[in-house]
Structures are given as structure tokens and as C-alpha cells.
């Protein structure tokens, strides 16, 4: 019966070395640059080279703490390339294997070539495992299996390449089991520690996301009132409260709008911008990150600000200001803080852009309204004045009534400054217009209203119905020798207010041929869409010789129905 070697002391020495590797792994993963390289969502070449050097150093360290055994070494050298390949892919694994193989080459021994080749092979095998499984599937089970496989490859190479074979065999009988167990545990420990880094990173990202969401929710709506000292002050206080900043400031392109925190005694709202960092961010229209007090550039002696991230606020390619986060006591701006301020700046810029768009829409709506007022059909005025002149000879009373109606109509259309009115008021404008036209058309024009009483207090745009009634009279009823009927209806459709102007005139096709330079339905439709959105506006239903129906759809909630 062959006696088994006593592997207890050797196993204990190797486990002690594994503990050293574990301590080194823990300390290394605390370094910011290593954490960034390990947790990068997409590895750049630079990240892979960093990982190759780090895990190569662990492989070299494994050589250094190796235990001499029968002319060779029992060590943890293979841990570096295996962990490097699993965490960084083939480039990091092979790079770590080569770095760890170099000192092993110079250490010599009859197993030198087998150890060198196995070290590089381990990095390649583990890198291919990561490539096949993907980063998310590299768990403790996969790590242990990969480490055992790489150790077996090492044993095979030692037995195949090392001479004499008998010495290699005797060596492996002593160190095979301890090194397989210990190095597999070391790889598993390394992966566990790094996975803990990933978990911390995910928790930090979750906290960061919650923090960003809180700030966005709290700052939402402020910039709709524009960038001024009040809105900037509210936003700056929220950011200061929610972050670990020593100070937060918001400026326009020339002066401070808000400043909260350290340095508020001399960085006062209304004063010119003091720091060179802010001036540089505004001048270059780019984010500036400075972690040096002198480069922050505050001219005030004794200013506590030692670091800053300054992000420009750009709206529609127009620079409107900057937002800044400061640190004191030689603290530095972290990459997370820089990205957070960039995100807030983008959000505030978007709010300012939305405000600018709303202002432009309101100006456009006002311009459309002014255009409608300017487009009052001159033929309507001439015809009305002609009717009045005729009536003064045969019916002075009717002539006086027409003059009053015409005066009231022109006053309503030309002198009203408000954009929105009640349906009751808009109907009165329509009735005045219809009274004037009835004197001209006599019994050829018939007009009816079907408006529920509860809808009369709805809010509608000024001058939104009269152009539709005029269109019905001019292009629907007037061309017919026998005249026709115009009906005005209103009803609720779920959350919308609908108003229809119907006529039994010549229909759309004929109206389209006869249309001249009068008030177009397009301007009314476009104006309503500017005010309420593309869901709203006009819908035209028409058939030749059967009449036309124009339906106005408005948001009832915005119309403000009074219960």
C-alpha cells in the first residue's frame, strides 16, 4: 500500500498565502481607479490594460510568496490570470498571465516552462469563459470550475513538459491537491470580493438615481417661469439640500442669480461673476471640473471654495447661464457629482426651452388672432354700409339699429385684448353678425342655435366661431338662390367641448371653387392647435349640394366649464 504524502502543513501554508491574496484583493478594490475599471459598463482598452497590470501584479505576488517544494514552487500565481480573465476578458487575462509568467521564468526550476505556459493559458481560458458566459453570469460556481480547469491544465503541462517525469510526478503527488483546493478558493474569494464591489456600485447607483429623481421632481416647474433670481434661488436651495455640496450657485451670463452655502458672504446675488472657472465654462460653453483652489479663481482672499464643477445652461443653442457645485476643505468633485450636475443642467435647459416654446406659441397664437382681425372681409363692411345707406331712406329705425350692430361688432373684434372669453360672449358676437347679414339676405338666411345653458360659461378663444358662421353664410348659403339655414350646436364629448356650425348650402366642392380672399378656416384651425395642441382644432364634413358641417373641438378642462 502506497503511503500518501502529508499535505497538511503545505496546505496550511498555501491557505495562508490565499488569505494574503484576499486581503490584497480587498484593498485593491478600494482604489477609485480600480473600482472604475472593474465596474465600467463597457471596457475601454485603457480599462483592460489597467486590469491586466493589476491582476498581473497579483500573479507576480503569487510567485514571490510561493513555497519551495522539491525543486519547484507551490504558489498562488495562477489566481491573477484566472481572476483577470473572468473579470476583464481575454486581453486582461492573457496580459496578467504574461506579466505573472515573466518573474516565474527567472525563478527557474525544472517546471519553469510548464508554469510559464500554464499561466498564459489560464488567462486565455478564463477570458474565453467570460466571453462565452457574459459578465453577468460569472458567479462563484463558474469561477471555481474555471479555476479547477486551469489548475488541471497546469498539472498536465507539468507532467508533460517537465523532465524527469518521475520528479514531476512526485511533485504533483505532494502539491496537486493543496494547490487545486487553495487556488480555486482564492479565485472564488477574489470574485466574491469584486462582486461585492459590483453590489455596492449598484446600490450607489440606485441611491444616486433616487437622489436625482427627488431633485428633478422638486425642481420641475420652476424654470417654466424663466431664469431669474427667484427661480434660481429655489433650484439652488434644493440642490444644496439634496447633495453633499459645500455650495451651489446659478448664474446668468454676467451675474450671480443665486448662491447657497460656503462663500455666500461674498458671492452675492446680483453681483458680477467672480470665479474664473465659471467665466471659462460660459466662454467655452462646456463643463469645467476643477479640484484646485487656485484654479477655481475666486479673487476674494480667504474664500473657502477649493473645487468646482461648472456646467453651462444652453437653450436652443443659446447660452443663458451656468450651474455650479462647489467643495471646500480640499475635497474633490467626484465623477458622480459631475454627471449629476450635468443631468440637472440638461433638465433645467429643457424646462427653459419648453418655456421659450410656449412663449413662441402664445406669440404665434396672438399673431394668428391679429391676422384674423386684419382679414375682416372688406366686402362684408361695404355690403353692410350699402345696406345701411339704403335703409336710411326707407327705414331709418332699422338703419340706426344696423349702425349700432356694426359698431358693436367692430368694437368686439378690433378692440378686445383678451385671448379667451366665454361661449356666451362669443355667441353674442355671432348674433350681432347674423343680425347684420339678415338685413341683407332677408328671409334667404335662417339661423338657429342649440346651445345647452350649462355650456354658456365655457371658455373659448376669442373670434373662434364668427369666422365659421361667416364662412357658412358666404360660401354655403349666399351662392344658393333660395338661401339656406345655418345652425350652431354645442355639446360635451367626454372631456372635450364640441361646437358645430352647419349649413345646408352648396357644399364644400362648390365653396372651394368660389372661395376668394376672405377669412380662411385654416387660420382658425391653426390658432386652436397652437393654443391647445394637435388633438384639437377643426374638422370639416361636406358634400357637394348637401351642405357643410364644421366641428370645433376644444379641451373642456381648459375651457373651464362652471359646474
TrEMBL record:
Protein's recorded name: histidine kinase
Gene Ontology biological-process entries: cell wall organization
Subcellular location: Cell membrane
Alphabetical keyword list: ATP-binding, Cell membrane, Kinase, Membrane, Nucleotide-binding, Phosphoprotein, Transferase, Transmembrane, Transmembrane helix, Two-component regulatory system
Annotated Histidine kinase domain residues: 465-558
A Pfam family this chain is assigned to: SpoVT_C
SMART domains: GAF, HATPase_c
Reaction it catalyzes: ATP + protein L-histidine = ADP + protein N-phospho-L-histidine
Assigned GO CC terms: plasma membrane
Signal peptide per UniProt: none
GO molecular function: ATP binding; phosphorelay sensor kinase activity
Origin species: Sporolituus thermophilus DSM 23256
Amino acid at each position: 500500500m502506497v503511503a500518501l504524502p502529508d499535505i497538511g502543513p503545505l496546505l496550511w501554508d498555501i491557505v495562508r498565502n490565499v488569505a494574503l491574496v484576499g486581503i490584497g484583493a480587498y484593498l485593491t478594490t478600494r482604489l477609485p481607479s480600480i473600482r472604475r475599471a472593474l465596474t465600467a459598463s463597457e471596457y475601454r482598452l485603457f480599462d483592460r490594460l489597467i486590469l491586466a497590470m493589476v491582476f498581473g501584479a497579483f500573479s507576480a505576488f503569487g510567485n514571490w510568496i510561493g513555497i519551495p517544494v522539491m525543486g519547484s514552487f507551490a504558489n498562488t500565481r495562477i489566481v491573477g490570470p484566472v481572476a483577470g480573465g473572468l473579470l476583464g476578458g481575454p486581453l486582461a487575462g492573457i496580459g496578467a498571465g504574461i506579466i505573472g509568467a515573466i518573474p516565474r521564468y527567472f525563478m527557474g526550476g525544472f517546471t519553469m516552462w510548464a508554469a510559464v505556459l500554464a499561466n498564459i493559458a489560464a488567462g486565455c481560458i478564463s477570458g474565453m469563459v467570460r466571453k462565452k458566459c457574459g459578465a453577468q453570469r460569472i458567479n462563484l460556481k463558474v469561477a471555481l470550475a474555471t479555476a479547477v480547469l486551469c489548475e488541471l491544465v497546469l498539472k498536465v503541462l507539468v507532467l508533460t513538459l517537465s523532465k524527469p517525469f518521475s520528479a514531476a510526478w512526485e511533485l504533483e503527488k505532494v502539491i496537486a491537491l493543496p494547490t487545486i483546493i487553495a487556488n480555486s478558493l482564492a479565485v472564488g474569494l477574489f470574485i466574491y470580493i469584486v462582486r461585492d464591489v459590483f453590489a455596492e456600485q449598484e446600490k450607489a447607483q440606485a441611491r444616486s438615481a433616487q437622489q436625482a429623481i427627488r431633485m428633478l421632481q422638486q425642481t420641475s416647474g420652476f424654470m417654466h417661469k424663466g431664469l431669474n433670481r427667484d427661480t434660481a434661488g429655489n433650484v439652488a436651495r434644493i440642490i444644496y439640500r439634496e447633495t453633499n455640496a459645500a455650495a451651489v450657485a446659478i448664474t446668468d451670463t454676467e451675474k450671480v442669480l443665486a448662491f447657497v452655502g460656503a462663500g455666500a458672504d461674498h458671492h452675492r446675488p446680483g453681483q458680477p461673476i467672480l470665479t474664473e472657472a465659471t467665466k471659462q465654462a460660459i466662454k467655452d460653453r462646456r463643463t469645467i471640473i476643477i479640484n484646485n483652489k487656485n484654479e477655481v479663481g475666486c479673487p476674494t482672499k480667504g474664500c473657502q471654495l477649493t473645487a468646482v464643477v461648472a456646467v453651462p445652461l444652453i437653450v436652443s443653442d443659446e447660452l443663458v447661464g451656468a450651474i455650479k457645485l462647489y467643495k471646500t476643505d480640499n475635497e474633490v468633485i467626484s465623477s458622480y457629482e459631475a454627471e449629476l450636475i450635468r443631468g440637472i443642467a440638461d433638465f433645467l435647459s429643457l424646462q427653459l426651452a419648453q418655456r421659450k416654446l410656449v412663449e413662441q406659441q402664445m406669440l404665434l397664437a396672438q399673431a394668428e388672432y391679429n391676422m384674423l382681425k386684419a382679414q375682416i372681409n372688406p366686402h362684408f363692411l361695404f355690403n353692410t354700409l350699402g345696406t345701411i345707406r339704403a335703409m336710411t331712406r326707407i327705414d331709418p329705425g332699422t338703419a340706426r339699429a344696423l349702425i349700432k350692430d356694426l359698431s358693436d361688432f367692430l368694437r368686439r373684434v378690433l378692440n378686445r385684448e383678451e385671448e379667451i372669453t366665454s361661449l356666451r360672449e362669443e355667441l353674442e358676437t355671432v348674433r350681432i353678425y347674423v343680425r347684420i347679414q339678415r338685413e341683407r339676405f332677408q328671409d334667404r338666411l335662417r339661423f338657429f342655435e342649440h346651445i345647452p345653458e350649462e355650456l354658456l360659461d365655457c371658455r373659448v378663444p376669442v373670434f373662434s366661431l364668427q369666422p365659421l358662421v361667416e364662412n357658412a353664410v358666404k360660401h354655403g348659403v349666399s351662392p344658393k338662390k333660395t338661401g339656406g339655414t345655418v345652425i350652431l350646436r354645442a355639446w360635451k364629448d367626454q372631456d372635450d367641448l364640441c361646437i358645430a356650425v352647419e349649413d345646408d348650402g352648396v357644399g364644400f366642392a362648390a365653396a372651394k371653387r368660389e372661395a376668394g380672399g376672405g377669412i380662411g378656416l385654416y387660420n382658425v384651425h391653426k390658432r386652436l392647435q397652437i393654443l391647445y395642441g394637435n388633438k384639437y382644432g377643426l374638422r370639416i364634413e361636406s358634400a357637394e349640394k348637401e351642405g357643410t358641417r364644421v366641428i370645433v373641438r376644444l379641451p373642456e378642462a381648459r375651457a373651464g366649464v362652471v359646474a
